[in-house]
Amino acid sequence: MARRILLDCDPGHDDAVAILLALASPAELELIGISVVGGNVKLDATVLNTRKLLSLAARDDIDVYAGCPRPMLREIVTAEHVHGDTGLDSGSGRELPDPLRPVADKHAVNFIIDSVRNAAAGEITLVATGPLTNIAVAFAMAPDIIERLQELVIMGGAGFEPGNVTPAAEFNIYVDPHAARAVFESSVKLTMFGLDITHQMLITPPRLKAIEEHGGRVGAVVADLLDFFNRYDIGKYGWDGAPLHDPCTIAWLIDPTLFEGRLMHVVVDTSEGPSLGRTVTDWFGAGEEEPNVMVMTSGDADRFFALITDRLSQLD
Predict the structure, then answer these.
(1) CB contact at 8 A, 127 and 8
(2) Residue 65 CA to chain centroid, in angstroms?
(3) How far apart are CA 195 and CA 178, in angstroms?
(4) Which of 4, 75, 84, 222 is most buried as measured by Cβ atoms within 10 A of its Cβ?
(5) Are 196 and 160 a contacting pair, CB within 8 Å?
(6) What is the pLDDT of residues 260-274, one digit of tens each?
(7) pLDDT tens-digit profile of 72-109?
(8) What domains sit in the chain, N to C, each tagged with a CATH number?
(9) What is the DSSP letter of 59?
């Protein structure tokens, strides 16, 4: 039986692959809706990008819900320098197809709350690949849903890697550290895919070529998007390709053998200064706090990209 998931995201190139990977895996995952937050670009653009991705996959049966346009306490920080002005710029300049379905009337936070409350306890898995604003607000408005979730799987944070937006912080956590702290301090069952694991998942030229040549119609479009996405990080890091962050969450739900992790205590630093947004992980149990997060630390990059390529080909 497919696991029922709700995806909260801010597309973004890597969010785009996460969405398409979920859609391409109906035997393992049932995507019941997509809630959207401001992050990689502002909310209007992330919502439009989400709707265009559903059009690319020829899916007019999934609703998109617009959520919080900015963090809880701070001004929004966006990443057009990475994702381009649209948030989904392509290498060729081609644009995604127009949306097939209007934005849903309900606010994303209410959609999250209602979806979890209307399902059986333990039935819904929440996946968050952007700033955690929508999630934190939902938990604050309806704390009863925390225990009703099967689990929350996020892309965000960094245990041992340096940050990618500041020396200390990963982008998603840094954009809304107060929301992240509230989520991490809740009692939710939480799995974290941070930079420790995503920096191992590089879009190297052979992997990009495989997506283009063997990923079918949708794979060719994804390769064009990732060609643009690769440019900034290759220049920044000097690596063979950009890290493909967000799809790690979906790939793990499809095949848990792809990744390994360790349960440990994690706290989000919300103090103003150079460590704002840092996820402090207690690897050796040096503190007295109980572990609260499964932190993913290693994975099989070749199998990860093979899964993406194969599943994208099935969207044709």
Answers:
(1) yes
(2) 16
(3) 19
(4) 222
(5) yes
(6) 999 999 999 999 999
(7) 999 999 999 999 999 999 999 999 999 999 999 999 99
(8) 3-313 (3.90.245.10)
(9) -
C-alpha–C-alpha distance, residues 305 and 202, integer Å: 9
For the entire predicted model, the pTM comes to: 0.98
Distance, CA of 181 to CA of 179 (rounded, Å):
5
3-state secondary structure of 123: coil
Tell me, yes or no, if 245 is annotated catalytic: yes
pLDDT in tens, 279-305: 999 999 999 899 999 999 999 999 999
Point out the catalytic residue in the list 13, 83, 245, 265: 245
Nearest-angstrom CA–CA distance, 34 and 13: 16
| Helix H or strand E segment including 56 | helix 43-56
Separation of alpha carbons 195 and 192, rounded Å: 10
260 φ/ψ angles, rounded to the nearest 5 degrees? -130, 150
Contact predicate 6/127, CB 8 Å: yes
Alpha helices in 120-204, H assignment, sequence order: 133-141, 144-148, 171-175, 177-184, 195-198
